[in-house]
Amino acid sequence: MKNFGVFLHKRGKLREAETHFRSALDGAESNKPENEVHPCVWQCTVHYANLLKDLGRFEEAIRLCKKALEAQRRTLGNEHPDVKESVKILGWITDAAK
To answer: I need a surface site. Which of 36, 54, 62, 92 has the fewest CB within 10 A?
Structure first.
């Protein structure tokens, strides 16, 4: 799910990547309680937040990244590699917002 969005992001196709991420996330999150959302959705959300950082939408990026990180911590635990990656990306976003 996230791979094509990340691919587009790395290639500098930010608007296309945003469209892909938003479409993937809209379908995955629709009408599901947070505890029923697959952990890959949260990882995708973090990568989408990183894209938003590059689009200069820092507040939205921080909000989404924090939401995903909180859900990851609850479902995966603090030591999971996805959680550690999300912490790193939140740091990048926060630094860029300064």
So the answer is: 36
